[in-house]
């Protein structure tokens, strides 16, 4: 955006006066933030209008990314950067004695997601806009986002995330673009002039009100749209005449029950529970989204028969799968198309990404619940199922088991993953191994029936937020060595490889990392009161707390190291700071127990003068996008230690790599691709292979008890869980103890323990040679370009959404 400092400054001053009716000096930083946000949004508005006009004129294909979650984080800094205004803004504010960073920190994180899946959606929006693709998000405007985590006495306590408290300058409420979503009632079937007509009657209408947020591309004059829906009652008027009769309270109750649909994000990310409110949420945003897409398409003269040439709908996991029957419903009941044509259009439009193979995360809705809430949609799903099963019967005569495995409706349930596969033209996994497991294990039968639908799209992250924004020091070094072409072409980072052998560059990398570590150390001191040694190895595991991610493995080896250090305080190890952050689902007892364990270890270790010069343990509370932006650039070692086969991809692994941390990892998810990229010598790999894990799962043969009995170090740390060492209450960590012993260690923690400990010794020996370490970091940075979500989005675009899409910024 072409704007000079003085114009910007003047505009800002005017804006401030406009909205606050006062002088800047008299206000506080929050008011200054509001004025700045509002000014930037004004600038964006023009761009936004322009982009939309252009899309309407060119009639290019519009991509809609449907997701229950968008984990955007803060928007001010990234939007300024993408507009090309960051320097001008910084300087103009400085003249007014305002530090831009102070204002940025006042913005609430937009935390409408649990973790990986929601953050991926946010990275994809950024990449679509930056590549000039007409790609938009569609989701729910939760009044309360992902809960805020407090640690009290070592335990997680959940507080509500009232992120809209101070308002949200980025969104625009578009009441005139509201849609009505219908729940419950019955379906009236009539024969009108020889045509069977289905009408939903006696339903409960809910008004879906869209709030639009602009998604600005990187210096390319594009502003796409994230449309989030909020639930309201259709009529907002209370009937005051019924006030005295008690109806008034009923009306309020009704209003609350309608608004509850978009009240709060479900905080479970890997455990499915069939809650009716969740099903309501799903249909609510999917129905509103599709209605508005079709309304817009038709308003601009589109012919419904060619809808699939002009739009694509991508569903982020199975959560928006109702898009399939909802699109069918509109094409059949409202547009009057026949089944075959509607089905062809629908399957051409919809594509689906699977994000997990954990069986406990699969969405299956009880038929009665489904049918009661969505009677017409259920009829359509039944019809889809019947037609599909009859195809199966023709192909697999008499193979009932196979057919019932593939059916959409079975055992009294509607299986969303099967519906998503049948009703879309593309099914993708999010990393090579994950896609292979989908094809050969999880969805084997569906894959052999539809081999051409399945494909891989390895995840990515936006290097704009995760490198340019979060690590300006490193970005500077990169620009000074290889130029700035990597900003638009992230794979150009490979040009950095040759510099990484240069001692001067290695020293510079070390200096940059040190600075980032100092900044984080300050934060740790401020938040936790712990002083950490910035020349120690910053060994970081930040992600959701979950059994399969194996924070327990990390804990056990710290406990082991602690034992060894107490026995021999002169043990030759490089000092380490173990840093953790992450949230546990509120109802996941084991995960909450793990948080308590981490904090108990921290308490013990940090206060033991015999060891605390060498090791420290830190748990930073309330992990979110903004905290990740501070932690990741300060990491030396990236912990990616999930049980092989369980982590579909992982995306923090890519962020760490791009910021010059070295990875210690199992060969799981995208760790495999990272390892392939950098080569064996530039990553620390340990643990069971996928084949070994799958063989254990299939054939048994694993006994954690055996390992416990035979391995003294393991026996000691396991016993330490219940012998009073980490808590006076010996029962406190009983559930972890039981999980690892009596319940045979579902995630093979004990099995991988030795190889993890040994591999960590290698980490130590390499870290001793600063030059060698930084050389490896440099190689990781140089090879991180393929993990930009720009690459991922190009692959989605050309491979799934339509090869006819042409990109202007490549
Ligand atoms: C489902 C039903 C009911 C309630 C909640 C849910 C639910 C919500 C969120 C289920 C799953 C999620 C989120 C899953 C997720 O984040 N998966 C991660 O996706 C990343 C992006 O592809 C991968 O990198 C991670 O490996 C994967 O765990």
From TrEMBL:
<protein>
    <recommendedName>
        <fullName>Alpha-1,4 glucan phosphorylase</fullName>
        <ecNumber>2.4.1.1</ecNumber>
    </recommendedName>
</protein>
<keyword id="KW-0663">Pyridoxal phosphate</keyword>
<comment type="function">
    <text>Allosteric enzyme that catalyzes the rate-limiting step in glycogen catabolism, the phosphorolytic cleavage of glycogen to produce glucose-1-phosphate, and plays a central role in maintaining cellular and organismal glucose homeostasis.</text>
</comment>
<comment type="function">
    <text>Phosphorylase is an important allosteric enzyme in carbohydrate metabolism. Enzymes from different sources differ in their regulatory mechanisms and in their natural substrates. However, all known phosphorylases share catalytic and structural properties.</text>
</comment>
<dbReference type="GO" id="GO:0005980">
    <property type="term" value="P:glycogen catabolic process"/>
</dbReference>
<keyword id="KW-0808">Transferase</keyword>
<keyword id="KW-0963">Cytoplasm</keyword>
<dbReference type="InterPro" id="IPR035090">
    <property type="entry name" value="Pyridoxal_P_attach_site"/>
</dbReference>
<dbReference type="InterPro" id="IPR011833">
    <property type="entry name" value="Glycg_phsphrylas"/>
</dbReference>
<dbReference type="GO" id="GO:0030170">
    <property type="term" value="F:pyridoxal phosphate binding"/>
</dbReference>
<dbReference type="Pfam" id="PF00343">
    <property type="entry name" value="Phosphorylase"/>
</dbReference>
<dbReference type="InterPro" id="IPR000811">
    <property type="entry name" value="Glyco_trans_35"/>
</dbReference>
<keyword id="KW-0021">Allosteric enzyme</keyword>
<feature type="modified residue" description="N6-(pyridoxal phosphate)lysine">
    <location>
        <position position="655"/>
    </location>
</feature>
<keyword id="KW-0119">Carbohydrate metabolism</keyword>
<comment type="similarity">
    <text>Belongs to the glycogen phosphorylase family.</text>
</comment>
<dbReference type="GO" id="GO:0008184">
    <property type="term" value="F:glycogen phosphorylase activity"/>
</dbReference>
<dbReference type="GO" id="GO:0005737">
    <property type="term" value="C:cytoplasm"/>
</dbReference>
<keyword id="KW-0328">Glycosyltransferase</keyword>
